[in-house]
Amino acid sequence: MRHMVRGLIGALGLLAVAALPARADTDIKFALDWKFEGPSAPYFVAIDKGYYKAEGLNVTVDTGPGSVAGIARVAAGTYPLGFFDINSLVKFRDQNPDKAVKAVLMVYDKPPFAIVTLTKTGIAKPKDLEGRILGAPAPDGAFAQWKAFVKENAIDADKVKIENVGFPVREPMLADGKVDAITGFSFSSYFNLLQKGLKPDDIKVMLMADYGLVLYGNAVIVNPDFAAAHPKEVAGFVRATIKGIIETARDPEAAIKAVMKRNETGDEAIELARLKMALKDNMITEWVTKNGVGGIDVDRLTKSIEQISVTYDFKARPTAADIFTSEFLPPAAERMVK
Predict the structure, then answer these.
(1) Which of 147, 165, 176, 333 is the most buried (most CB within 10 A)?
(2) 129: CB partners within 8 A, 6+ apart
(3) DSSP string for residues in 148-184
């Protein structure tokens, strides 16, 4: 009889455990800067591989309006996390000191900001832009660095006509000769021009980082209220995203499949080439290889803020600590690209 009672109690206990609701995953809306293209692979890899799920997160990814405009969405809490330009975040923090948005994960150690032109224009160096028409979308992250680029390269800005163009017509206008050069992300404009029928030799890309800019690029940024209320979730998101970046670098051919599932109209060969270009030039740099994915050099970030101040009048210049925090990063050993 005693064994029967014990068995009954044990069975009831198992039923009670089974009746408990499963732990609910935390829903997180994540905003990209742009479309579902090759460089966005790490986030989709992290979803498909279950990296976010393992952290108790149900992550959805949305396209964005550009690498600058979306910062306000994170500041407002529309998105708790987003992927935007850290240099524009510096300016945003200066203009909105009450909105303590911070970067928590550096993705583009070297920014893809570029001036893109065609070889037939004869524009071979920054100074050659004088007397020409530069097509630049007002909210473009690369154009946001124009004044610093002008300063570093002694360009007479009065001799460059800036034409505010929309993102969709930027490359077509260059291809059609309606503008002489454009600002843009290197891996976006270059491949968009290839899709317009141009050959690689027809295209000239000047990375701003090769012409005096010490700036960082896009980073994952977080809403301060969300970070304060959900520090474990933010750390989990960062940890899972880093795994996604490392896995993407390890096998870009497999990673691009995660993007193409969500971009059925895209050209897989072009998106794979775009991803590989971004990995090589922007994400897995020499510094990242030595120090791990996601972190920064504080001195370099400080210098980049100083560089922004050359052509931007700060009310109260933010410090590197105001802009980036490493508190949500896992140890460096877990961030190394294997």
Answers:
(1) 165
(2) 115, 123, 155, 160, 180, 181
(3) HHHHHTT--GGGSEEE---HHHHHHHHHTTSSSEEEE
C-alpha triplet 111, 112, 114: angle, nearest 5° = 120
Distance CA 96, CA 106 (A): 22
Torsion 284-240-322-34 (CA) sign? positive
- For the chain, how big is the Rg over CA atoms in Å? 23
What tokens were used for 308? 């922004």
Give pTM, 2 decimals. 0.86
Per-residue pLDDT tens digits for 277-302 = 999 999 999 999 999 999 999 999 99
Q: DSSP characters for 167-228?
A: HHHHHHHHHTTSSSEEEEEHHHHHHHHHHTT--GGGEEEEEGGGTT-----EEEEE-HHHHH
Between CA 109 and CA 87 the distance in angstroms is: 12
The two structure tokens encoding residue 181: 């050069």
